[in-house]
TrEMBL record, chain A:
Organism superkingdom: Bacteria
Protein name: Branched-chain amino acid transport system substrate-binding protein
Record-stated family: Belongs to the leucine-binding protein family.
Domain Leucine-binding protein: residue ranges: 38-383
Pfam families: Peripla_BP_6
UniProt-listed InterPro entries: BCAA_transport, Leu-bd, Peripla_BP_I
Assigned keywords, A-Z: Signal
UniProtKB/TrEMBL annotation, chain B:
Residue ranges of the TM segments: 12-30, 60-80, 92-110, 141-160, 189-210, 222-251, 258-280
Subcellular localization, as worded in the UniProt entry: Cell membrane
Entry annotated with the keyword Transport: yes
Lineage: superkingdom: Bacteria
Family annotation (CDD domains): TM_PBP1_LivH_like (cd06582)
Protein topology in the membrane: Multi-pass membrane protein
Species name: Micromonospora luteifusca
Primary location: membrane
Name of the protein: Branched-chain amino acid transport system permease protein
Keyword Membrane attributed: yes
């Protein structure tokens, strides 16, 4: 009996909250905000493998964007009442799905941000489409977000597998070596990366002389059979391209060094790497490794100024995912300010086709055709230990990949 | 030929880790009849402890190689006295719940303090080169692991067959009821044996730190294979666990290099072997059908 009462009371409360939160928008559209406030939702991994590269510090970045926005517009801001909701999706698609629904329906969230892990990211895209609410994906790599799973309310912000392959695969082939051996984790992400890289390498005049799918997860933690195979292939590869991530990347790199493959003439290129990965491996273990970065904190004075402020709050330098979360929150708030409403359709209309510039987006453009946010990307190389003079300043940018070349052209699969 | 020799070497190195972990599991299971699901967590603590000792106290690898196994062994003994020994008379389900819960607690404590990112640990400079074997060269560190583990296994084997405590452990492992009936106080050896098993896991962890990613989940990933190793060797068989450890390391390495065109087979080869062995010998390669207790 008591339980029934409890459930009834809880449902009543939910109805009340939902009623309050959801009452506004239909009646307005002329400068009014839902519930007189803006709520940004950061949905990501807060305790698992991706919690360092985005996680709680992405929330810090979004809070910085809100503070900067309020400081910029002062009393002219569309509202000063901007809050952040956060949730942990544990990298599980089903959890991401229910958390996203809860955010939009019960927490009054206007925009969901981040969402690493491709499978989880695609689920949230479905929810955004169904609820007609905005979603800026930052943390996931799959091109399906702007391909066959694209929708009117989803934008893909920082990077994707095409950008990584096109940057690292193409430029490394042109500048470092033609023959590649690709090692990838044998599951959706790795297989995708292997295909994208092979295409980019071949297009740049290179050859993939060998490719192996390593077990995923590789429970033994040992990649030596693959690493030993590399220098013995015929023709001998100049570059080992590893698509592993997180702890597996650490294992590959440690063992690459153990077997001294660089001394045997096989350079290392990494498919996807974050600043936090370099920090945990130490630059000494990765010196000379090339990869594509969506943003680097010490690239110029503007980035550095942001990185300094970020470090004061978070105690660490920002990864590209942190900077992109800041930028996405900022661009959304600017769009709401310009539209004078948080009505999703109006905001989408304001964003489509817009050229944008901020601390993260250089030569940025929000493509109307598929909602891909294109911007300059960078081919980066890890410095030798002797050139590392300050903590976290681990790479040098070899080349800026212009926005127009960094991302693929809109996919025919995408019908908004 | 060179490739084959290299793969064999690598298989043995992977196998060395399996053997060390399986050996600890086997003696613990033998004496206590407890399947220690927390074994992977102690392996992780060994590696993490080495990292913390190095970065926060400047303690080098060689000292960690002694400090961590001894420290974790003592911790294991304390845990055995505090909680584990209460399980021995209960349904095995309770020991699953307790040791699994222990794993989660240990993992999360490390996560809370150090996060999930892998921590750096360099190969000790003395072992960072490579050894030239004529046909091929091989990292010194791997040669060291292999030599060290083989020596350790021989020492354990010697202790088990030539000393009184070894005799008791073997007897209690194979037939605890009979051993007790002969008037031997099995109980007093239980705690040190548990500590010894945990110490071995910690030792494997320290050895792993320079060549594998040091993070809170490293034990959880590995322990699945180690359980398969123990089952293949024969649950409770000390010799079986060591032999199966090295054997599975070899099978995995050969599978990955010669069956790489059949990823489904090469990735599940350990479990294929396990299924095959169990069909042929339900108690494992060196196991004995248990007399009902």
């Amino acid at each position: 009996m008591r339980r029934t009462m409890g459930v009834a009371a809880a449902s009543a409360a939910v109805v009340l909250v939902a009623g309050c939160g959801g009452g506004g928008p239909q009646s307005s559209g002329d400068g009014k905000l839902t519930g007189d406030k803006i709520v940004l939702g950061v949905l990501n991994d807060q305790s698992g493998v991706y919690s360092e590269l985005s996680g709680k510090n992405s929330v810090t970045a979004v809070e910085m964007a809100i503070a900067d926005f309020t400081a910029k517009y002062g009393d002219k801001a569309v509202t000063r009442n901007i809050t952040v909701e956060t949730a942990d999706h544990q990298n599980k698609p089903d959890v991401a799905n229910s958390k996203a629904q809860e955010m939009y329906d019960r927490k009054g969230v206007d925009l969901i941000l981040d969402v690493p892990t491709s499978s989880a990211a695609l689920k949230v895209a479905d929810v955004a489409k169904e609820k007609k609410k905005l979603y800026f994906n930052i943390g996931a790599a799959t091109t399906d977000l702007t391909g066959k799973s694209c929708n009117k309310y989803t934008f893909h912000y920082a990077y994707d597998t095409y950008m990584l392959a096109n940057g690292t695969g193409k430029t490394t082939t042109e500048q470092i070596g033609k023959n590649w051996y690709i090692l990838y984790p044998n599951y959706a992400f790795g297989q995708d990366m292997e295909k994208s890289f092979s295409t980019a390498i071949t297009a740049a005049g290179g050859t993939v002389v060998g490719r192996d799918g390593a077990p995923f997860p590789n429970t033994s933690g040992d990649f030596s059979t693959f690493l030993l195979k590399a220098p013995n292939l015929n023709p001998k590869p100049d570059v080992l391209g590893t698509m592993q991530a997180g702890a597996e990347l650490v294992n590959v790199v440690k063992q690459y060094n153990e077997f001294k493959l660089r001394d045997k003439g096989v350079d290392l290129a990494v498919g996807l790497m974050f600043l936090t990965d370099i920090h945990s491996l130490t630059p000494a273990a990765l010196a000379g490794t090339t990869y594509t970065d969506a943003w680097y904190w010490n690239f110029d004075a503007k980035n550095r100024e942001f990185a300094d402020r970020f470090q004061q709050k978070a105690g660490t330098r920002p990864t590209f995912a942190h900077a992109a979360n800041y930028s996405a929150a900022w661009q959304y708030l600017e769009a709401v300010q310009a539209a004078g409403t948080d009505d999703a359709d109006a905001v989408v209309k304001g964003l489509e086709g817009k050229t944008v510039e901020d601390v993260f987006l250089r030569n940025g453009k929000i493509r109307a055709e598929d909602h891909r946010v294109v911007h300059d990307a960078y081919l980066a190389q890890v410095k030798p230990q002797s050139e590392v003079t300050e903590p976290w300043d681990y790479v040098k940018v070899l080349k800026t990949i212009p926005a127009a070349e960094a991302f693929r052209t809109p996919s025919a699969d995408c019908k908004l | 030929m060179t490739g084959f020799a290299q793969n064999t070497f690598n298989g043995l190195v992977s196998g060395a880790f399996y053997a060390l972990l399986a050996l600890g599991l086997a003696v613990i299971f033998g004496m206590l009849r407890v399947v220690n699901f927390a074994h992977g967590a102690f392996y992780m603590l060994g590696a993490f402890g080495a990292y913390v000792l190095l970065t926060e106290a400047g303690v080098p690898f060689w000292a960690a190689l002694v400090i961590m196994p001894v420290g974790l062994g003592l911790l294991g003994m304390a845990l055995e006295r505090a909680v584990i020994h209460r399980l021995t008379k209960l349904d095995p389900l309770y020991n699953f719940l307790l040791t699994f819960g222990l794993t989660l607690i240990l993992q999360d404590l490390v996560k809370l303090r150090y996060g999930v990112q892998s921590s750096p640990y360099a190969t000790p400079s003395l072992l960072s080169g490579s050894v030239d074997f004529g046909l091929f060269d091989f990292p010194t560190y791997r040669v060291f692991i292999l030599g060290f583990t083989v020596l350790l296994c021989v020492a354990v084997w010697w202790a088990l067959t030539r000393t009184r405590i070894g005799m008791v452990v073997r007897a209690a492992t194979e037939r605890p009821d009979l051993t007790r009936a002969l008037g031997i106080d099995v109980g007093r050896w239980v705690t040190p044996v548990f500590g010894f098993g945990i110490g071995l896991a910690g030792l494997a962890g320290v050895l792993a730190a320079p060549m594998r990613a040091v993070n809170p989940l490293m034990g959880a990933d590995l322990i699945i294979v180690v359980f398969a190793v123990v089952v293949i060797g024969g649950l409770g068989s000390i010799f079986g666990s060591v032999a199966a450890g090295f054997g599975i390391g070899l099978v995995q390495a050969w599978g990955e290099s010669y069956l790489s065109n059949f990823p489904i087979v090469s990735q599940t080869i350990v479990f294929i072997v396990m299924a095959g062995v169990l069909l042929w010998r339900p108690a494992g390669l060196f196991g004995r059908e248990e007399a009902p207790a």
